[in-house]
Design brief:
This is nitrate reductase (quinone). The chain is of the alpha/beta class. It is built from 40 helices and 38 strands. The C terminus is likely disordered.
């Protein structure tokens, strides 16, 4: 009551004043403040982060009250940077700040769910049959199988218990292994760095049973093939703090403020330091507002712009004036001085392969790998020499693989960059040109398809008694850029206004960027690099890398950086940021993730080729080899289709395959084991005589289908599944929206080597398992959905390429409802598998085929032109002309015991990565002391890996990045190969061992390791290529240098020896439907782009209510005002976007910032929220990938060739989708499909009764 009276007298009460009346003293109660204190109080605060593929890797405070996560805020206790560098914190974004909504939302998967029709058949069978026999009885009954497969995507889940569901999964796995082989089981999970233990849980289980792990970096199109091509490195980039050291920032296709929010402050801060910023993007994006200059080339023409910038830099900084720093840098660190042979074809000289020591009499005295030692002219002696650093020095001898200015005999050399003034002759050399024609509204320049340009050459005597003409890479490089150097001839330019490829005037026509802007940016970029010794940087986004000819854009930009000496210099270089690819403690993680402690090698498969084959997108391929082949190549030598060349690459040992053989590898392994024969010899002979056949030659045969698939930590169908509707039709077997037909013989050619079956399979998978904390699109189409713990409910590890710290995911609360961590889920499946497998499996012997691997001696397998054993061009030889063959013993009953303990191979074989290895027995002993030993069972005495924290400690103990003692071993191992001492890079760290509890307390900076090309230092920010430049460690390429010339036969045949301009491809997906399925509204054709979005990280957060409240609350497509006017579309209208691949529906956002001719649908807006029905397919509108289909590129299939050799997520086909065009129109009828589902829908036709559907479209 007293408080009530106080309130009544509040305004009449006298108050003491102070500070001349500016302050008053009050004495009323402040109890009301307790309400706020209680609202913002917490029982505990726990450190965690978000295991999402955003590259942020931000440390967060998770507040818990009453056992409930109430909210999260950013941590601010990162280790401080040096005084002249801004600190990293605060790191975070609105998406991360909304994550706690998921824990208790309606979209949370709370219990194990199984499709009702599947569990009904299972339970009935289990009444009388054992688990494996029960699964066999229902999966071999076509009626029962069709009953659940055809219902995918249409609801019907029921709640089940963990024991029942894990038994079902285990039985399906055991049956599949026995009936078809373990390589018919596959798993897909992306980006281990975002939650390493969660990834390793599934990959460890699959590796122990012999299943396939699918790559993701290439499938996501995050992998830039230009990086392996140039540096022999998957991707290595500067941390974001190094932006602050830059003096010139070229932000190209990267929308930093929107997609790199935690790091954007460095971009903002460096501008206050005086750095200039130029943004290149076709749309006016957030980053453009930060820039001093915004260039907006037509989308897809970035390579043309990069080549024009390079033209100016070459002219002004390398030819008319030679900058000493640029000259010294390119002479030592690039392939510019190396000699290239010239071959005569059709009466003209063309650049051929690099000259090798083996080509010369006496091989220059090189007896070890002379086929892999490149040659240059020495200015000091005038002789030909084999400079150190090439791949031939890396393998078979020690101490010579470095970039010292010496040759193989130890003599000092100075390599000659140009033969100008020392030539035997000036000869016209032919270069391919692809810009004479272009599809859609891209500009064709009308130049011929072969450009003859004069080059200084020398004649060199060869080992066969003849001679060959040679030129330096630099001379050919300048000729490729169309520079007149006084050698005469045509197709070269003396000025920038000449219409010669690749002048600024030419680029203005192609890109729309004014030539003066091109000249200005090139001059400023190079002059800054000259004055600062390389502190000019290019920050790249994923957008450029999603075009079919992405490597042309990237290699053009990389060439610009290399010309200016920027790579490997702090504040300079190539900064390609996409997914959270940087798994910093990589060598500690690999043995855990792929069970390398128990068996080697694991089965890996490149995701793009897998999905291209098994979603049958190859049956709809319209791109012909002749369209992308170089005009200098003989088209008669290149018959067949893309799937033919992918199959060729697989059988030649270039790419992996899954499944591998048309036979069960366990049956084959049993016969080999019983006979005592050499597995490699048996398989090679079987391949030769046809008794053993690659599965890739008949992917649609039921024996060669993938049968069981696990998806976890991913959303393939809602985010990354290019060709979404083909997934639904052929792999999943559900209702789909494919509009086109695979019988269109005018557009589609049948393959020559790969079998064509007139009836394409529908629904290849027997069992589809998804593990997620939310009901995503992939969950909806799965047979089994398992509830996993959220990022605040489990223990895990997280790193990023954007900063040098390692972060934990911590269990702030126990998993809600019946959710479990990924580690516990796969441990439970492994336990059940060990229980049910003995019914049909024991100790088995598995024939495993492995492609020729990068960073192994095997990468020297095929030094010259490749030969195909299937065509009779050579004999099949394992590890040389076909995949390597290994007989792997698998103890299936011990799967669980091995899953939860460390195997003996780390002590026997050691550990390592990227071509070096070291002894790790001491670390295994320390780990046993830390985690304890297994008390009983078949693995008694081995170190335990029972819990997720045990798994974290395993990684931290084994990795040089988190164990200083191991770092010293790793640097010493590298020093033996290079002949140089690198131990100082980890000096003083030998006693440092980061434990899980350490990073829970505070983020920890990792230790410098030879796994990476930069260093962790208090003086230098991490910068890729730093150790190559400053420690003289070669790049892991054929030349050991930054390789701007790619001399592989296939690279030359497809015209990509040098970076060049290649217009986007014509996917031929709109002409069949434009105007054919009218709804009364105008139709326009647009190029559809799918950049990363503001309100989600891929598909995560896209259905988060907080994020939906900040945007339009459903799918949207951005179009320009001009295009909207032409189509009669107003802002917020419902529109339909479609082509032969499928259709999607969305709201239109009409904006001035979008350039005419393009449409933007931000990536991974799930079709689960506010999506209306399609007038084309008669179904719910699709996702952004409903209108896409994969187009693979033959040059990405190359293997067995030094840096162009396979590695998991290192090199391989990528899933490009930016060349796609669509029809856009306003919808005439909006249908929310809120009626009862049509149970009689025709699955094989792909459409329900509503709408026009594919039957009409096919007409």
């Amino acid at each position: 009551m007293s408080h009530f009276l106080d309130r009544l007298t509040y305004f009449r009460r006298s108050r003491d004043k102070f500070a001349d009346g500016h302050g008053i003293t009050t004495d009323e109660s402040r109890d009301w403040e307790d309400a706020y204190r209680k609202r913002w109080s917490a029982d505990k605060i726990v450190r965690s982060t978000h295991g999402v593929n955003c590259t942020g890797s931000c440390s967060w405070k998770i507040y818990v009250k009453g056992g409930i996560v109430t909210w999260e805020t950013q941590q601010t206790d990162y280790p401080r940077t040096r005084p002249d560098l801004p600190n990293h914190e605060p790191r975070g974004c609105p998406r991360g700040a909304s994550y706690s909504w998921y824990l208790y939302s309606g979209t949370r998967v709370k219990y194990p769910l199984v499709r009702a029709r599947l569990i009904r058949h299972w339970r009935e069978a289990r009444k009388t049959l054992s688990p494996v026999a029960a699964w066999k009885s229902i999966v071999q009954d076509s009626g029962k199988r069709h009953d659940w497969v055809s219902r995918r995507g249409r609801g019907g889940f029921v709640r089940v218990g963990w024991d029942e569901v894990t038994e079902l999964i285990a039985a399906a796995n055991a049956y599949t292994i026995k009936e078809y082989g373990p390589d018919r089981i596959a798993g897909f999970s992306p980006i281990p760095a975002m939650s390493m233990i969660s990834y390793a849980a599934g990959s460890r289980y699959l590796s122990l049973i012999g299943g396939n792990l699918l790559s993701f970096y290439d499938w996501y199109c995050d992998l830039p093939p230009s990086s392996p091509q140039t540096w022999g490195e998957q991707t290595d980039v500067p941390e974001s703090a190094d932006w602050y050291n830059a003096a010139f920032l070229l932000v190209w296709g990267s929308n930093i403020p929107m997609t790199r929010a935690p790091d954007a402050h460095f971009y903002s801060e460096v501008r206050y330091r005086g750095a200039k910023s130029v943004v290149i993007a076709p749309d006016f994006n957030e980053a453009a507002k930060f820039s001093d200059l915004w260039l907006h080339p037509k989308q897809g023409t970035d390579a043309a712009l990069a080549l024009a910038l390079g033209h100016v830099v070459l002219r002004e900084f390398h030819i008319d004036r030679q900058v000493d720093y640029f000259d010294d840098y390119t002479r030592r660190y690039t392939d510019f001085p190396l000699l290239v042979t010239l071959a005569e074809r059709d009466g003209r000289l063309v650049p051929d392969r690099l000259l090798r020591a083996a080509d010369l009499p006496g091989a220059l005295g090189e007896t070890n790998n002379p086929d892999w030692k490149t040659v240059a002219c020495d200015e000091l002696s005038g002789e030909l020499v084999a400079p150190l650093g090439s791949a031939g020095f890396r393998w078979g001898e020690q101490g010579k693989w470095n970039l010292e200015n010496k040759d193989g005999a130890g003599r000092e050399v100075r390599l000659r960059k140009s033969l100008a003034g020392h030539e035997d002759a000036i000869e016209p050399v032919a270069f391919p040109y692809f810009g004479g024609t272009a599809p859609h509204d891209f500009v064709a320049t009308g130049h011929g398809d072969v450009l003859m340009r004069n080059v200084p050459v020398k004649k060199v005597a060869t080992v066969d008694g003849g001679s060959v003409m040679v030129a330096t890479v630099f001379d050919l490089f300048c000729a490729n850029y169309g520079l007149d150097r006084g050698f005469g001839g045509g197709n070269v330019a003396t000025g920038y206004d000449e219409d010669v490829p690749f002048t600024p005037a030419w680029a203005e026509k192609v890109t729309g960027v004014p030539r003066q802007a091109i000249i200005q940016v090139a001059r400023e970029f190079a002059s800054t690099a000259e004055k600062t010794r390389g502190r000019s940087m290019v920050i790249l986004g994923a957008g450029l890398n999603h075009w079919y000819h992405m490597d042309m854009s990237y290699r053009g930009i990389i060439s610009l950086l290399v010309m200016c000496g920027c790579v490997g210099q702090s504040g300079g270089g190539w900064s390609h940021y996409v997914g959270q690819e940087k798994l910093r403690p990589q060598t500690g993680w690999l043995p855990l993730a792929f069970a390398l402690d128990w068996s080697r090698p694991p089965r890996h498969m490149n995701g793009t080729s897998f999905f291209y084959a098994h979603t049958d997108q190859w049956r709809y391929e319209t791109l012909k080899l002749s369209e992308i082949l170089s005009p200098l190549a003989d088209a008669a030598d290149w018959p067949g289709t893309m799937i033919d060349y992918n199959a060729k690459a697989e059988r030649m040992g270039w790419l992996p395959s899954a499944p591998q053989l048309q036979a069960n590898p366990l049956d084959l392994g049993r016969r080999i084991k019983e006979s005592g024969a050499d597995p490699a010899a048996v398989v090679a002979e079987g391949m030769r005589n046809g008794d053993i056949k690659p599965a890739s030659l008949d992917p649609d045969h039921p024996v060669n289908w993938p049968r069981n698939m696990f998806f976890w930590r991913s959303n393939v169908l809602g985010a990354s599944g290019k060709g979404h509707e083909y997934f639904l039709k052929h792999l999943v077997g559900s209702l789909h929206g494919v509009v086109g037909s695979d019988n269109d013989r005018e557009r589609i050619s049948k393959p020559q080597d790969v079998a064509w079956r007139d009836e394409a399979p529908v629904g290849k998978l027997d069992l589809m398992v998804n593990i997620d904390f939310r009901m995503s699109t992939t969950s909806i189409y799965s047979d089994v959905v398992l509830p996993t713990a959220t990022w605040y409910e489990k223990h895990d590890l997280n790193t990023s390429d954007m900063h040098p710290f390692i972060h934990p995911l911590s269990a702030a609360v126990d998993p809600a409802w019946e959710a479990q961590s990924d580690w516990n889920i796969f441990r439970a499946i492994a336990r059940q598998f060990s229980s049910v497998a003995p019914e049909v499996l024991g100790v088995e012997h598995d024939v495993v085929l492995t492609p020729i691997q990068h960073d192994t001696p095997g990468e020297l397998a095929q030094p010259y032109e490749p030969k195909d054993w299937l065509k009779g061009e050579c004999e099949p030889v394992a590890g040389k002309t076909m995949p390597s063959v290994t007989l792997v013993e698998r103890n299936y009953p011990e799967t669980y015991a091995r899953f939860t303990s460390m195997g003996p191979l780390l002590e026997k074989l050691g550990n390592g990565g990227k071509g070096i290895g070291w002894d790790t027995r001491h670390e295994v002993e320390l780990l046993a002391d830390l985690n304890g030993r297994v008390a009983e069972g078949p693995t008694a005495g081995r170190p335990r890996i029972d819990t997720d924290i045990d798994a974290c400690e395993t990684i931290l103990m084994l990795a040089p990045e988190t164990n200083g003692e191991v770092a010293l071993k790793a640097w010493a191992a590298l020093g033996k190969v290079t002949g140089r001492d690198h131990g100082h890079l980890a000096e003083g760290k030998e006693e440092e061992k980061i434990r899980f509890r350490d990073i829970v307390s505070q983020p920890r900076k990792i230790i410098s390791s030879p796994t990476w090309s930069g260093i962790e230092s208090e003086k230098v920010c991490y910068n890729a290529g730093y150790t190559n430049v400053h420690e003289l460690i070669p790049w892991r390429t054929l030349t050991g240098r930054q390789s701007l010339y790619q001399d592989h036969h296939w690279m030359r045949a497809f015209g990509e020896a040098f970076a060049t301009w290649r217009p986007p491809i014509d996917t031929r997906t709109v002409q069949q439907v434009v105007g054919k399925l009218p709804n009364g509204n105008p139709e326009i054709l647009l190029n559809i782009l799918t950049p990363h979005q503001k309100w989600g990280i891929h598909s995560t957060y896209t259905e988060n209510l907080i994020m939906l409240s900040l945007n339009r609350g459903g799918p949207t497509v951005w179009i320009s005002e001009d295009d909207a006017r032409a189509a009669g579309i107003s802002d917020n209208d419902w529109i339909e976007v479609f082509n032969v691949n499928g259709a999607l529906t969305a709201r239109a956002i009409v904006s001035q910032r979008i350039m005419p001719g393009s449409a933007i649908m931000y990536h991974a807006q799930e079709k689960l929220v506010n999506t209306v029905g399609s007038e084309i397919t008669g179904q719910r509108g699709g996702v952004h990938n409903s209108v896409t289909r994969i187009n693979m590129k033959p040059t990405h299939m190359i293997g067995g060739y030094a840096h162009l050799a396979y590695g998991f997520n290192y090199y391989g086909t990528v899933g490009a989708n930016r060349d796609e065009f669509v029809v856009v129109r306003k919808m005439s009828k909006v249908n929310w499909f809120d009626k009862r589902a049509d149970d009689a829908a025709d699955v094989e036709a792909g459409t329900a009764d509503r709408g026009v559907g594919i039957k009409e479209a096919a007409k």
